[in-house]
Amino acid sequence: MISTRVIRRNALLMSVAVTLGLSAFGVSAEDKSADHGSGPAAAYTPSLSTLGQLQVEIPGRKEGDPVMSPEEYLQANQIYFERCAGCHGVLRKGATGKPLTTDVTRANGYEYLRDFITYGSPAGMPNWGTSGELTEEQVDMMARYILLEPASPPEFGMAEMRKTWKVVVAPEDRPAKKMNDIDIDNLFSVTLRDSGQIALIDGKSYDIKAVIDTGYAVHISRISASGRYLFVIGRDALVNMIDLWMETPATVAQIKVGSEARSIETSKMKGWEDKYAIAGSYWPPQYVIMDGDTLEPLKIKSTRGMVYDDQSYHPEPRVAAIVASHYNPEFIVNVKETGKILLVDYSDIKNLKVTEIEAERFLHDGGFDSSKRYFLTAANARGKVVVIDTKEGKLTDILETGGQTPHPGRGANLTHPTYGPVWATSHLGDETVALIGTDPEGHPDNAWKVVQTLYGLGGGSLFVKSHPNSKHLYVDAPLNPDAEISGSIAVFNVDDLTQEEPEYKTLPIVQWADIADGQPRVVQGEFDQSGTEIWFSVWNAKDKESAIVIVDDKTLELKHVIKDPRLITPTGKFNVFNTRSDVY
Amino acid sequence: MISTRVIRRNALLMSVAVTLGLSAFGVSAEDKSADHGSGPAAAYTPSLSTLGQLQVEIPGRKEGDPVMSPEEYLQANQIYFERCAGCHGVLRKGATGKPLTTDVTRANGYEYLRDFITYGSPAGMPNWGTSGELTEEQVDMMARYILLEPASPPEFGMAEMRKTWKVVVAPEDRPAKKMNDIDIDNLFSVTLRDSGQIALIDGKSYDIKAVIDTGYAVHISRISASGRYLFVIGRDALVNMIDLWMETPATVAQIKVGSEARSIETSKMKGWEDKYAIAGSYWPPQYVIMDGDTLEPLKIKSTRGMVYDDQSYHPEPRVAAIVASHYNPEFIVNVKETGKILLVDYSDIKNLKVTEIEAERFLHDGGFDSSKRYFLTAANARGKVVVIDTKEGKLTDILETGGQTPHPGRGANLTHPTYGPVWATSHLGDETVALIGTDPEGHPDNAWKVVQTLYGLGGGSLFVKSHPNSKHLYVDAPLNPDAEISGSIAVFNVDDLTQEEPEYKTLPIVQWADIADGQPRVVQGEFDQSGTEIWFSVWNAKDKESAIVIVDDKTLELKHVIKDPRLITPTGKFNVFNTRSDVY
Lengths: 584, 584
Fold this sequence. Notes:
Two copies of one chain form a homodimer.
Chain A lengths: L1 E2 L12 H4 L9 H4 L7 H4 L26 H19 L13 H7 L1 H10 L16 H10 L12 H7 L1 E2 L19 E6 L4 E6 L5 E6 L6 E4 L5 E5 L4 E6 L6 E7 L3 E7 L9 E8 L2 E6 L5 E6 L2 E2 L6 E2 L4 E6 L5 E6 L4 E6 L5 E8 L4 E6 L5 E6 L4 E6 L4 E7 L11 E5 L3 E7 L5 E6 L12 E6 L8 E2 L6 E4 L7 H4 L2 E5 L10 E4 L1 H5 L7 E7 L5 E7 L7 E6 L5 E5 L7 E6 H5 L4
Antiparallel strand pairs in A: 1-31, 2-9, 3-4, 3-36, 4-5, 6-7, 7-8, 8-9, 10-11, 11-12, 12-13, 14-15, 16-17, 17-18, 18-19, 20-21, 21-22, 22-23, 24-25, 25-26, 26-27, 28-29, 29-30, 30-31, 32-33, 33-34, 34-35
């Protein structure tokens, strides 16, 4: 099973993932392009700003545009931002869904668009017409709407949020103790991307304990500090709060926090456990602090402001990853376009204190080092990792990873035989894995430097994974155009890292899954609580069979395959204990 | 000279000041109107957002609109924001200058506008045409431009600021010691509103030591903690930094921080003296921290965000008063429309920490209590005063003043014979003066309550004034429509405050100034350093004689009248010592 790497330094064209329509996990076209178009004024077209206004301005009207009445335009606009923007983006530039800019839509033409909206596609587009969710007239209207230039998206303030806020089961009506026999700390929350659901899967029996309706393409799951509540957020900015103590875990509260979102987190500081949740959105550019018991929205804060370096105004700085500090009552919020990391002090939200750290543009995802003191986060289009000291509340360092477009997810922590504690990230744009020293006290010479570069299966990697009890580093490559590569996982043995160019084992995960139909990709390893096995998603098209493949960490052999008709397009998986304790 | 009040509770129509075109000192139409129009979406018309863009969208085009080419529109737009917006407002709603919204301009018509721009008016409009500052073609273009709907104002980020930044005399070329015999601590900086200048007047000899060109209608003067540097800001957002050590004090650095502005301040915390300056602007809605030696712009922070109460997004929250804390390395920044008070920690501007205190909408001006620990600031259209504890960094209280539209300036501190330390504010909308207890330790029952209401000359008051060495409280009423009232000052004796309805003396300041022509108004008392005399501006039209009248605080008799052809439209006066030490 040992193979040597065949692709080295063969940087993928960044358009690959977009062409494939596979830009899951927050990987959108903008993330991967370099700085061009970063000028905020150029990217922003203020036009129809508020749905509630009577006056309608149809932006960018051109000769031959389809005719829409102002009433139709307003209705279509509302449908777009409620149903479509989560995947296709608020400015229709594409994300999970394909771009719907007018160069694309006009090339396809009205009939094509009408039929596509009506019947959907196996790649994940819902069949809005035949499902009955939109009437024939509405489908016709939406097809005409997307032939017009995109409108400016609507604001989503407290009034709009509160309209969407639902407490399904009030705190006093919830169980006073755990009512099921689930080993919650070893439960996995699995995103079922295209069905708009999550599955809760038992980490020992592999039984699906519940399938819960959520927002579309849930981006992440987070667990309250106590372990009781699970929070998930869809790309459509719908947040579900799930009570794991109920006989069958179910949603107890729900809220929509905007038109498009990626991040949610809960307060983890001692004394503040389960008190607050926070969600960040792409549109509007803001975050909201919510009550940890009910999701009641308490405080909204806009991220609009100046870019850290040239200090020009940016109207749309999106909120990317959010983590909760273990050292202070703070949320750590990545603001993408302005390149700022915010330390949001939640100890007094009426007198909200925010420290705004100048970092680097295009901040995206990241995680803690093994001590949980330092937050390492990728400035992906800049090829850099930014390090924040969450204890002191300051920038520690900014370093180049040496690879193209780092995408760490939360990263992976290893104890390197030569360099001590390191944190790993793979790259979207090439096959390298950077190991970065994270121990300024024990190994000061290596701290915040790339101490070693590994070479994985190929470009198009999204996630690396390890565990304190594991000797292995797992690297995926789901966005690689080669089916063999995108269907496999590379595993490095930590003991081999003393070698100059350590080799990896290749795990043929898709082959092990034994799926006849389609071209599934393997994505995102996630350990169980004990660190003895690792789960991978085998992610197929919506109408084809998918699976979860479980590997024994010691032997690197297949342990189990979970298949179930309900497992539609599984992607991210979150083990409750590892997620709430930031173990990765 | 003793008179009793003749007007009581006779609330002025708030339109008076606007009609008179006398809305100086930050009193604009919006401040005085109540909440209507506070909905941000309704007030904001996103349209042409960036001057630099080639694509031109002429907003709100109507039948019969004058024809402008895109090139003309861009040029006119630039002239408007550079030359006109400071007085007429970025959205043309009027402020110091009259409103130029299309209902007004179209009623007047093209010829009227062209001639007005060409010849100016005695009320303060410059003669742009006959002065040669605009060509005949430019005047024609501007007349057509203001017949069109207002464009969205341009951003003003770091690049724009740096283009306007000039160090006239570098720090190393400035004197190492004071080169003049001026008693700097008893110098007065006097705004010469319509000539775009300040006068520096010696507090003993009454000699004018210098007249310095500045921005238009300087709103305030502030002094660096050491007393060496004087900072002034015009409504056109031009900042001048003046070195008082030079043989003849002169501008050593200059910068434009936006299109329209009101506030400037310098760092006062021990250890940070003279290190930073900060300027807040109305447009763009932001503040900038600058180097205290050179005005180099270092950090710009947008104030766009959510309104404190309904948490809806506001695109244009203007920066009103700024003061510097004596207890922490912080600037205290009033954000008007969102009703937030920001504590901006300047100890580490790369990791900028800002505490955002939820306060009340329409925050405007304010000052410290006598201990300098508490900052009291008016939420003018809400009839309230907000109290901030600058030591603890928290909201202390919000109280109603009982009057209509409080306008404290920095307020006045007195030791009340019954209630101990109090802080006073007068009102724009009626003749009342509210005395608010400020001693939570010595007089806890009275703290942050209106302990007494005094009745002054009439509505239209802008400023109250006292001094630790004075037994008097002086109250002006320059915006009162009655010439006798607007030309007089009411003086209360602190010893009389034991009475239920203490009477005041009336000082006939304008009469004392002995000015034959025009209808001058008396405005803004300012004490000398020792607290033995108080200066009042007698503010006449631009082409008429004005004066400064100096009153002996002990006898309340006329001490001196300063007249000089250079004293054109004097308004605000700032004694160096009292200003830098927050003595008022």
